[in-house]
Amino acid sequence: MTDYRRLRVALLGAGAVGSQVASLLQQHADELADRAGARLELVGIAVRDVDAPRDADLPRELLTTDAESLIVGADIVIELLGGIEPARTYLLQAINSGADVVTANKALLATHGPEIFDAADQVGAEVYYEAAAAGAIPIIRPLRDSLAGDRVQRIMGIVNGTTNYILDRMDTEGADFADVLADAQRLGYAEADPTADVEGYDAAQKAAILASLAFHTTVPLDAVHREGITAIDKSMMDAARHAGYVIKLLAVCERLTGDEPRPSSSGEAAYRDAISVRVYPALVDRAHPLASVHGANNAVFVQAEAAGNLMFYGAGAGGVQTASAVLGDVVSAARRHIAGGVGVGESTLANLPIVPIGRVTTRYQITLEVDDEPGVLATVAGTLSDGRVSIASLEQTVVGEDARTARLVIGTHKALEQDLSETVDRLAASGVVERVVSVLRVEGD
Ligand code: NDP
Ligand code: HSE
């Protein structure tokens, strides 16, 4: 057996992910040593309750409630606590005491990333966070390293497994949102409080992380436009299917071309070299690779200027799956620690402006219930035309027993979000529209 240098590894957290990381570190110790060029010695595992039951069989003597003592003298600190505090304080302590750090904590990086990266820069340490977006899927390293010589144009990600599971079952089984959410909770995909998933907060954190990397720009969480999936119902699913689409919660990170239209009501200049970061349920053509992402899986579709289209697919969560990404980071951290030198900091040199949602252009599908009377279609078409929204397709069906209501499903060409929303408001107030059933963006072209 090679006599490798020993690196002291402190693990903070032994929950779903941490317990698997601890277990794999021990099971594969020899292999990991060969790959890292150092023996990774797990010196302790910080938890809240040393007597709590664990998913893996962990040596009792490694468990401690004293995280701070564990951090002192560690070469690598793995933070798998979750949440902001005390994770933030511990990570900063680890960095300042000379450790490289590995974290899967998207909530922390999306809110305090710059503070943590700056602290690492100051001391030449490195922060690894492959598991912080899309779990087991390698996407951080491809964006940070493999595509560093290219220009990323757009990322469309299914980055939340819980909502993909819910939407997929609503699509494939015609199930109701509330029933599938209850199943997702029973299966452990969704928390007892599902807000972070179903309202898009979790996806927004991941979008902020991915966009920061892709566009070399600090993307604060509050610059990410966020909508969840709670308004999606069976009739919207049916309408999407009928039109050849599936509804997915997407994280869209996009570089604007500068050719987008400007709001008709303002004299603002076009945005050149700006970005948009948004999370919302969108219609995706069934032929698009993202449409075939089923169950709780994640996928990230990247469009880059030179590389073209790339798709990264797999498990976005799960203890052992996420542990794989964490351990990859631990091996990288160990190699760097052995080689020495200063860590590669985050590249935020571009710092592109982030445009508000009103300046985004996409296609839309607008579903309206209108009075089935002469002239109604002309009023609707005129209102759309006045609002600079161009109709690409239109389907009318008669609904209701009295046959006096028509349902219009209008597909638009690309339109500016601000124009579109003002136009929908005018349609709603026009007197001919009984109900705006839904307005969904169409993504993926
Ligand atoms: P868990 O809630 O399962 O585990 C958290 C662990 O941290 C527990 O062992 C807990 O101790 C410990 N802990 C919490 N607070 C403290 C504290 N103040 N002091 C000491 N120990 C503490 O979390 P997960 O393993 O699910 O998630 C860990 C991280 O990984 C999170 O940032 C999460 O977002 C991220 N992640 C998780 C994924 C998943 O599938 N679970 C997927 C991708 C990322 P005790 O056990 O004693 O309560
Ligand atoms: N709650 C997340 C999801 C898991 O459903 O994808 C980890 O980010």
The total count of strands amounts to 17
Bound molecules: NADPH dihydro-nicotinamide-adenine-dinucleotide phosphate, L-homoserine
Sum up the overall morphology in one term.
elongated
Q: Report the oligomer.
A: single chain
Helix fraction, binned, reads 25-40%
The portion of residues forming beta strands comes to 25-35%
- Unreliable segments of 5+ consecutive residues: none
Largest sheet: 11 strands, mixed
Mean of pLDDT: 94
Known CATH architecture of the largest domain? 2-Layer Sandwich
Q: Mind telling me the C-alpha Rg? A: 25 Å
- If you consult CATH, what is the topology of the largest domain? Dihydrodipicolinate Reductase, domain 2
Assign the structural class, choosing from mainly alpha, mainly beta, alpha/beta, alpha+beta, or little secondary structure.
Answer: alpha/beta
Number of helices: 14
Write a structural description.
This protein has about 450 residues and is an alpha/beta fold. It has 3 domains: about 5-135 and about 320-340, NAD(P)-binding Rossmann-like Domain (Rossmann fold, 3-Layer(aba) Sandwich), CATH 3.40.50; about 140-315, Dihydrodipicolinate Reductase, domain 2; about 360-445, 2-Layer Sandwich (Alpha-Beta Plaits). Helix content is about 35%, strand content about 25%. The strands form 2 sheets. Strands 7, 8, 9, 10, 11, 12, 13, 14, 15, 16 and 17 form an 11-stranded mixed β-sheet that branches. Strands 3-2-1-4-5-6 form a 6-stranded parallel β-sheet, sandwiched between helices. The model has no long low-confidence stretch (mean pLDDT about 95). The structure holds NADPH dihydro-nicotinamide-adenine-dinucleotide phosphate and L-homoserine. L-homoserine binds near residues 160, 162, 189 and 197.
